[in-house]
Amino acid sequence: MDERALAPVVSPEFVGVGESSAATAAKEVALTRAGALRLDAIDLLRGLVIVLMVLDHVRDYVHAPAFLFSATDLTQTTPLLFMTRWVTHLCAPTFVFLAGVSIFMQRANGKAPAALSRFLLTRGLWLIVLEFTLIGFGFNWGPPLAFGQVIWAIGASMVLMSLVVRLPAMTVLALGAAIVVGHQFVASAIDATQLGPWTQAWFLTMQPGPTLFLRGFIPYPAIPWFGVMCLGYGLGFIFRQESEQRRRNVLLLALSFLAAFVVLRAINGYGDPAPWSVQSSAVMTVLSFINVSKYPPSLMYVLVTLGVSMLLFLALDKLTGRLQKVLLAFGRTSLFTYVLHIYLAHSVALLIGVLGGLSASYYFDFLARFAGAPTGQGYELPVVYATWLAVLLMLYPLSSWFARVKRERRDWWLSYL
Predict the structure, then answer these.
(1) What pLDDT score was predicted for residue 366?
(2) Which of 11, 158, 221, 271 could covalently link to 299 via disulfide, CB atoms 3.0 to 4.6 Å apart?
């Protein structure tokens, strides 16, 4: 890697979930806390995946079959329902990858390694606390729930990144690639039931499983997601390059990921625990081909989702107008918007459920819903989409307000929100 990629110069960049920006004069130009220009396309990409994440969680609350069967179960789903769920697969890997890019940018813009390591440790711990308190309650509104999702994964990965951030970027990239490629092999070779007192640590770090310290579940084990963050850190230098060179290299990265996915998936060997198969129609066969495993993220899952996300980055780089403004508001306040959307989506779902004559108790114990929804509880996809748009309309003015706060103030605590 060119050593100039680590030179502390003012260059286009982005900051991770919650990093604040400085005020400018009359023109609204977002800066990082270090004074470097933010790269709008990355804020836009993060904003887009926030929009998709809202769709996913609204579907959880509103869709009648949401907890009766998996939306990607080819024996029960429809193409529309499958794709409604599949596009939201882009969210977690994009967030985690971009968080790794952010960490690289902070180092490259001159943040001292010791200070960066402290920040990653404290911010990671803060995210973990948020996940198991404010966020967990927002999902549940009932008995205490330890639900380790994407914020837990980002927080735990930041804690781990605080230990390796002093290493050369290419070393971290190699570590990430080794984890993403080799995780399935290691995880499949170990039986969690034989680990005794280490069982909980295994579920927290390597494979999904129940929590033994509260009532709950860990669908996002930390180590495979840490691998994705390492990829973002190791490839972060690409996002500091001059515009045309950056676009060429991002396109090359996207096509490389997608080509690797197609070739390896076609072989139907290593890379995903669920092989694809020929289905009753060409459409369903394609869906089987892209039906990759998220819990934990398989090699195939990482390749296809990050490949698509990098193509979206290139498309968003040219976006202008009202949609750009909306996505920037979400993308520059992603942690704030993430937490807020849980409470808004839950509240709106409860409201329309009660108005529709549904049982209110259904909305006050999220984990119990995995046992199955009562007959007739919930609505079909058109209502899901309408509710999704309503929640986004409510989120936008709040996210836009907070984006202005972060643009105009430099308080240290804003980097934690």
Answers:
(1) 67
(2) 271
Domain count, the chain: 1
Quote the domain boundaries for residue 160: 3-416
Here the tokens at position 173 are 């990239």
Distance CA 218, CA 370 (A): 14
| 28-39 residue pLDDT tens | 445 555 555 678
Residue of higher predicted confidence among 97 and 210: 97
Pair of tokens at residue 44: 């836009």
Question: Which residues does 257 contact at the CB level (< 8 Å), separation at least 6?
Answer: 303, 304, 306, 307, 310
